[in-house]
Amino acid sequence: MNGRWIVLGLGVALLACTRPASAQIERLPHADTTAGNFFGAAVAIDGQQALVGASGEHSCTEQAGAAYVFAQDPVTRRWHRAARLTAHDCEKRRFFGRSVALSGNRALVATSEEEGVRTDPDVVYVFERDTAGVWVQTATLTTGDTFPDGTTGTVVALEGDHAILTTWGDTSTGRYGGAAYVFRYDAGTRRWHEAERLTGSGGVQQGIFGGDVAIHGSKVVVPSSQYLQNKPGSVYVFEQNLEGSWRESVRINEVDDFFIAVDVDEDRLLAGQSRAGQGRSGMATIYAPDSTGVWHQTATLVPPTPYRHGAFGSAVALSGDRALVVGFDEQLQLDYNINRVTYVYAFDAEARSWKYQGIIDIGHVAFGSAIDLDGRLALIGAASENAPGAAYIVQIH
User: Fold this and answer.
1) CA dist., res. 142 & res. 87, Å (int)
2) Model's pTM, two decimal places?
3) Cα separation of 160 and 106, whole Å?
4) Is 251 contained in some domain?
5) For the chain, what is the domain count?
């Protein structure tokens, strides 16, 4: 099935393809119309709840940032704003909302200092929804580590009682490093503690570890970019053993991107490679373990029309039998009106292969600045310096 989802107003998108089909798209309500608020710079969706970061918003002060929780009404099926989250220690240019994660009644919101401005670690704030339905800040997570892991670029992931935050190496001084820190919530003490520091094998050849992170069940996936050496990087899979420790189970090499995007669902791993493919048009690769536990590449997703330097794979999301990949479409060949879209792929269980389904397109270059997927519900951000940010809920088929 080939086609394109084209937004018609705020409520409906039409899929033009070989047989009739439709998809629903809803723009989440947001009152701040300030250009550069970066609403939609980070997104997360879990069931009937969504979380959107607005890292450039002037909340308590200039570019302190904010994050918003949205909920779906069970009767009308419409989405409404349920909460606005800000840090208790709100500070200027903390860019709260740079990265977000959501799992049940718990949310993570990360700050991100401007590189070279401060030497303090980034802070990750934990929010929880109480029995009255109110979201409250309950903890802050920092590494407090003296390792040269860098202070900027924090990315977070969350599942249940496990929170993952990553740091990149300090690129301003040319140091390598980066790590992923696993925090575990102790229900008895009601406190979070740092359980483990993850780094990949390879030492200094590892590159800059931690540009992205994903968690599902007993698996944590972290990429490692080699962009300072201008060569392909790697993706690491860590698995939790029976004792509760996380150990590297596989290192996937030759993943070609400056900033490698990853996602994981069950036993599938999706990695974006926007510098790979024909004319560096980009691709996204799916890996999975075989019956013996050895990981292999099982599929390669490519755009229906590969465009030179098309940035396909710059963001990815995976859930069940659906995958989303961000890239540019044919307008990349023009000198103006460059258009970024989200490509949809579906797994055909009978054919045991992934097939291109269509494109979600609102006609704006910022669309796809952040994406997440839960089942057939997608959350897509559109954040830029030149316009107010936006975020869209899309029911895909």
Assistant:
1) 14
2) 0.90
3) 8
4) no
5) 1
Token pair of 104, please?
A: 């049940």
Other C-beta atoms lying within 10 Å of the C-beta of residue 12: 14
Q: How far apart are CA 391 and CA 26, in angstroms?
A: 9
- CB-based burial label for 208 (10 Å; 0-12, 13-18, 19+): buried
The answer to whether residue 72 sits within a structural domain is no
Cα distance between residue 42 and residue 343, in whole Å: 18
Q: Which domain, by its residues, includes 364?
A: 1-30+261-390
Nearest to 24 by CA among 38, 5, 39: 5
- Indicate which CATH number applies to the domain containing 291: 2.130.10.130
CA separation, residue 78 to residues 73, 115, 360 (Å) = 5, 39, 20
Q: Give dist(CA 96, CA 56) in Å, integer.
A: 8
In this structure, is residue 127 part of a structural domain? no
User: Which amino acid type is present at position 237?
Assistant: V
Q: Which two tokens stand for residue 129?
A: 């929804």
Order of all β-strands in the sheet with 106-110? 99-103, 106-110, 124-129, 135-141
Residue where the block lists tokens 């963001």 = 315
Query: Within a domain: residue 178?
Result: no
Query: pLDDT digit string (tens) for 118-174?
Result: 556 678 999 999 999 999 999 999 876 554 555 545 799 999 999 999 886 554 455
> How confident is the model over 24-68, as pLDDT tens digits?
899 999 999 999 999 999 999 999 999 999 999 998 888 899 999
